């Protein structure tokens, strides 16, 4: 009989309990497997997971227990369960990227971060749902059905990493991996009341991440607390010779920063509120919670000023040229020749026809839309006007950050303009969907570190709001200091973590 | 599309048109691993045995640049007198083809690693050798594709095949593409210049040690661009690109054919179509490749998975010091040192014997002797066996030893030939062959004296003529002695002995 509330504990608490022998890793894994079975029904439940491998999770947990019994030193997250976004390759589990074109595909290799997590003794419970190839802000673009927000099952959990954020908010896992191309870690964190960090581009290896847009993609930690995210960050970060774009520099000490921040002292920290990220189009409850969170930072000793980043308003259109351009090329390999779905191979059709049929049947509407946009943007005669101009905007956005970070240590904004919207509301309006990422996209273009931290519930709908914190390249530690300080202040104000208010799903 | 009318002759065409050529040569580098992953580049492995997630283009896999390939590219660039970029990027060339795993090729587009260079080639003309300056537009790095094998069709081409097999062992092997600037030379030497350029490039690549550049194995592949313009005019005509011309002889033939074919098109009042063409070794003709409705749009953009290559100037300077002597300069130097005529040197180079002769000289031979053996006896044997000269079965050291034995008087020419024959037949070193076959010259004076006495006694009438001053008759007696000693006597000494006896 496992303790019923094990799954409510944080990763840090679980790791301590396992290390001290208070509970076994197997008991912890079992508690989470049971929790998933209780709340994650694909038709009626949260549907955070596309694939759960209970057997393997329990076996991994048993190995951790055996190591502990043998007196081996365990890593700081040994035995802690994790939900892995299905865009990260796993040699022992299918990896679909939310696409029909990869349904059932089992990679022959582990991503670098998968390997690092295994080596750290982290127990991978399964693979989480996502918008197809990480394109979307609601997880509705998954070929395998939407994930539901644990705060309100009729609403979206954010995207593309809605499976990971929902798994955290519904206590199916204390840790998750997300990937963030335009906000896919941070926006889901915001709308589920969880913590999501997009590290500095190149801070975490992309080897084994199924690419959306190579120059924007970044994997990062997702958790319910800032310290948990920092512990996971430490495990997955660092230089990887298999990823040429990974940075060969020491990883900032994010765990120390989270601990320091938890002291609640932000004296000397300069915080810049980005003028351009607010106002029209922002939900009143979002703005209210954001303003209060900034006031909290001020009370903790931070100096708050307004900062202008004039080119941020061009970030969204530039992003929607650069991203599709890279997507159109990255997704060319899905051609039925070597792996994945194959349609129409009847011996009579040519390879070209099989490619066409497979791509027609295997890709969803949003994926096709972006492939077409990108193919157009890269075409000869249009390249300079579209891709070329967008790259110039990208440089200007980076310069805005450079100028801003001469004045302040971190920038802040709301993470998303609205709280979680109802499933189905924006599926037919791509532009409205894209606008969800207004605040998060600039950091993907510039490659700097950013995060979303819970800062309360909007008055009008009672749904979570996120505070978006942006730090300079390789200053990921600043995010943790600010996030931890805010967390301790708000949790004591609320009388407990925000996620205590998540309704218990029916039937659990 | 068979040629309906006979093509005009080459000499007729070049009286009326000036050809302009551009050569694109792909060289497979001889690195141990592929361009962007750690897979082996070894030739001839089981299909799909040298592959990994990266060179198969599996989802999530990423490329990482092979530094040795970059080094080779820089050395090639330097040897072609190119500028080496301080900062250059890879680019994606996007097009769908089953043997290209990612459906894009990682190449370089507007930022090649090496650009703006030149080289020189020499061709024979009626007025003697003519040296031509050839501009090099660029040399850039890229990855090779896999191989498609079309099964069931008559031609091995995709048309008519029942199915295709794919081998990705070659996918990701590093290539350097070297592109010339437009080559405009006297029309009559254009095809020879094209051949000499490819030949010179091959020698250069080999001298650099970056590839074996064996055209028959596809390690070096040549595309020839040709266009014509009316004599004396400056506006370039429409060009065709004849793909995969894979021997030196074919380069010359293909260029010649295209010049004649395009002239016949223009003569008929038609326009040359810009297209790729296939070269047919057997018929000596080119045929039209796929004609596309529109120009292929490769949608190049900078490869976001790789950081720019930025070779430091120190590194480039250091690589510059590792360059071998340029083949043409080396050839000129050796010709002078060896005192060979142009014609002799050309024979040596064509036979691929320059290096072997050089080594033979180092081992103690003189130049003339070394050339005589390598171009004579050894070339013949190698040809008969279809083996390259350096695999004929005899080493430069062996050849030098034979020459030394001749100089020491231990062998005469005839015996020396038998020794070389024995070495080529695998009977051992020259000394072992001499020993085993009993080929040493008979220098035992008493044995020789007896043979001379017997010869004189056997032909008293000849002896009488010699005594009477008819020196021309000595040959007959020498011949008899040589016969008696089975050729193993020193003819000069035999003559001396005969004269000693008859004149005393």
Spatially, the strands of the biggest sheet of chain B line up as 2-5-6-9-1-10-11-12-13
CATH topology of chain A: Amidase signature (AS) enzymes
Overall geometry of chain B comes to elongated
The overall pLDDT average of chain A reads 96
User: How many distinct domains of chain B?
Assistant: 3
Work out the strand percent of chain B: 15-25%
Strand content of chain A: 5-15%
How are the strands of the biggest sheet of chain A laid out side by side?
1-3-2-4-6-5-10-11-9-7-8
Q: How large is the count of helical segments of chain A?
A: 16
CATH class of chain A: Alpha Beta
Whole-number count of domains of chain A: 1
Distance between the termini of chain B: 87 Å
The count of DSSP E runs of length 2 or more, i.e. the number of strands of chain A, is 11
Structural class of chain A: alpha/beta
- Could you give me the name of the CATH homologous superfamily of chain A? Amidase signature (AS) domain
- Multimerization state: heterodimer
Largest sheet properties of chain A: 11 strands, mixed
Task: Compute the separation of the termini of chain A in Å.
Answer: 17 Å
The ordered H/E elements of chain A are: HHEHEHEHEHEEHHEHEHHHHEHHEEH
pLDDT < 50 stretches of chain A: none
The best one-word shape of chain A is globular
Give a quick rundown of the structure.
The complex is a heterodimer of chains A (508) and B (504). Chain A has 508 residues and is of the alpha/beta class. Helices cover 38% and strands 12% of the residues of chain A.
Describe this structure in words.
The complex is a heterodimer of chains A (508) and B (504). With 508 residues, chain A is an alpha/beta fold. Chain A is built from 16 helices and 11 strands. In chain A, α8 packs parallel to α16 and α10 crosses α13. The longest helix of chain A has 24 residues. Chain B has 504 residues and is an alpha+beta fold. Chain B starts with 9 loop residues before the first helix and ends with a helix.
């Amino acid at each position: 009989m496992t303790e019923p509330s094990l799954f409510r504990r944080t990763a840090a608490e679980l790791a301590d309990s396992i290390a001290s022998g208070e509970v076994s890793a197997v008991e912890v894994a079992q508690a989470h497997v049971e929790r998933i079975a209780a709340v994650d029904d694909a038709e009626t439940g949260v549907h955070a997971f596309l694939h759960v491998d209970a057997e393997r999770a329990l076996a991994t947990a048993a190995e951790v227990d055996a190591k502990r019994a043998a007196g081996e030193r365990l890593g700081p997250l040994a035995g802690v369960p994790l939900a892995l976004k299905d865009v990260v390759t796993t040699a022992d589990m299918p990896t679909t990227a939310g696409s029909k074109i990869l349904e059932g595909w089992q990679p022959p290799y582990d991503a670098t971060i998968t390997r690092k997590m295994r080596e750290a003794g982290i127990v991978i419970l399964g693979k989480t749902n996502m918008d197809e190839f990480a394109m979307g802000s609601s997880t509705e673009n998954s070929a395998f059905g939407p994930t539901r927000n644990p705060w309100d099952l009729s609403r979206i959990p954010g995207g593309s990493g809605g499976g990971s954020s929902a798994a955290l908010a519904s206590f199916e896992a204390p840790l998750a991996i997300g990937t963030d191309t335009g906000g896919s870690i941070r926006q889901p964190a915001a709308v589920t009341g969880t913590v999501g960090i997009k590290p500095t581009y190149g801070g975490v290896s992309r080897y084994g991440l199924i690419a959306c847009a190579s120059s924007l993609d970044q994997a990062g930690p997702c958790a319910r607390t800032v310290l948990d995210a920092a512990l996971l960050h430490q495990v997955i970060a660092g230089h990887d010779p298999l990823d040429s774009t990974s940075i060969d520099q020491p990883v900032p000490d994010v765990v120390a920063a989270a601990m320091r921040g938890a002291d609640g002292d932000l004296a000397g920290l300069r915080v810049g509120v980005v003028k351009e990220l607010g106002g029209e189009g922002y939900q009143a409850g979002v703005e209210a919670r954001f303003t209060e969170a900034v006031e909290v930072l001020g009370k903790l000793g931070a100096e708050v000023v307004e900062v202008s980043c004039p080119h941020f308003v061009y970030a969204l259109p530039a992003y929607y040229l650069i991203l599709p351009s890279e997507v159109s090329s990255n997704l060319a390999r899905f051609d039925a020749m070597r792996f994945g779905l194959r349609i129409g191979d009847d011996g009579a059709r040519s390879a070209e026809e099989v490619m066409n049929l497979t791509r027609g049947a295997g890709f969803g509407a949003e994926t096709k839309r972006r492939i077409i946009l990108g193919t157009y943007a890269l075409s000869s005669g249009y390249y300079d006007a579209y891709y070329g101009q967008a790259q110039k905007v990208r440089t200007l956005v980076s310069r805005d950050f450079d100028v801003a970070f001469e004045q302040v240590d971190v920038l802040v904004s709301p993470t998303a303009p609205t709280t979680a919207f109802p499933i189905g509301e924006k599926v037919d309006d791509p532009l409205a969907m894209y606008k969800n990422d207004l605040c998060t996209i600039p950091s993907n273009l510039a490659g700097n570190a950013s995060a979303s931290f819970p800062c309360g519930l909007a008055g009008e709908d009672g749904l979570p709001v996120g505070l978006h914190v942006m730090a300079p390249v390789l200053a990921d530690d600043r995010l943790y200091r600010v996030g931890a300080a805010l967390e301790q202040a708000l949790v004591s104000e609320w009388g407990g973590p925000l996620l205590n208010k998540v309704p218990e799903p029916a039937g659990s | 599309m068979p040629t309906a009318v006979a093509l005009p002759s080459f000499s007729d065409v070049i009286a009326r048109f000036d050809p302009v050529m551009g050569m694109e040569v792909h060289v497979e580098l001889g690195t141990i691993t592929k361009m962007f992953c750690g897979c082996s580049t070894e030739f001839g492995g089981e299909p799909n045995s040298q592959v990994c997630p990266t060179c198969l283009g599996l989802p999530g896999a990423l490329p990482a640049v092979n530094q040795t390939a970059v080094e080779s590219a820089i050395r090639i660039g330097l040897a072609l007198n190119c500028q080496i970029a301080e900062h250059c990027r890879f680019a994606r060339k996007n097009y769908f083809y089953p043997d290209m795993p990612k459906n894009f090729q990682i190449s370089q587009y507007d930022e090649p690693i090496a650009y703006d260079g030149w080289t020189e080639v020499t061709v024979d003309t009626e007025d003697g050798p003519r040296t031509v300056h050839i501009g090099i537009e660029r040399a850039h790095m890229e990855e090779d594709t896999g191989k498609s094998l079309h099964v069931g069709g008559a031609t091995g081409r995709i048309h008519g095949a029942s199915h295709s097999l794919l081998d990705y062992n070659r996918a990701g092997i590093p290539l350097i593409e070297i592109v010339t600037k437009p080559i405009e030379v006297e029309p009559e030497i254009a095809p020879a210049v094209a051949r000499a350029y490819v030949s010179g490039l091959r020698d250069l690549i080999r001298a650099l040690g970056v590839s074996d550049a064996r055209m028959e194995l596809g390690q070096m592949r040549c595309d020839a661009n040709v266009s014509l313009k009316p004599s004396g005019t400056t506006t370039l005509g429409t060009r065709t690109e004849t793909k995969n011309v894979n021997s030196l002889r074919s380069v010359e033939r293909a260029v010649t054919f295209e010049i004649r074919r395009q002239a016949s098109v223009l003569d008929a009042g038609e326009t040359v179509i810009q297209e790729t063409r296939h070269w047919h070794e057997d018929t000596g003709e080119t045929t039209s490749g796929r004609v596309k409705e529109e120009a292929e749009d490769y949608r190049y953009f900078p490869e976001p998975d790789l950081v720019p290559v930025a070779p430091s100037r120190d590194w480039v300077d250091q690589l510059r010091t590792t360059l071998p002597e340029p083949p043409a300069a080396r050839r000129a130097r050796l010709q002078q040192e060896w005192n060979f005529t142009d014609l002799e040197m050309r024979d040596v180079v064509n036979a691929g014997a320059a290096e072997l002769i050089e080594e033979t000289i180092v081992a103690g031979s003189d130049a003339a002797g070394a050339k005589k053996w390598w171009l004579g006896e050894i070339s013949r044997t190698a040809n008969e066996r279809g083996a390259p000269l350096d695999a004929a079965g005899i080493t430069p050291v062996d050849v030098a030893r034979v020459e030394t034995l001749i100089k020491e008087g231990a062998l005469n020419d005839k015996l020396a030939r038998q020794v070389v024959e024995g070495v080529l037949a695998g009977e051992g070193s020259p000394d072992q062959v001499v020993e085993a076959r009993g080929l040493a010259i008979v220098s035992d004076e008493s044995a020789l004296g007896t043979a001379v006495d017997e010869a004189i006694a056997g032909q008293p009438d000849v002896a009488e003529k010699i005594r009477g001053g008819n020196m021309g008759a000595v040959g007959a007696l020498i011949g008899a002695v040589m016969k008696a000693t089975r050729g193993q006597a020193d003819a000069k000494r035999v003559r001396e002995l005969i004269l000693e006896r008859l004149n005393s």
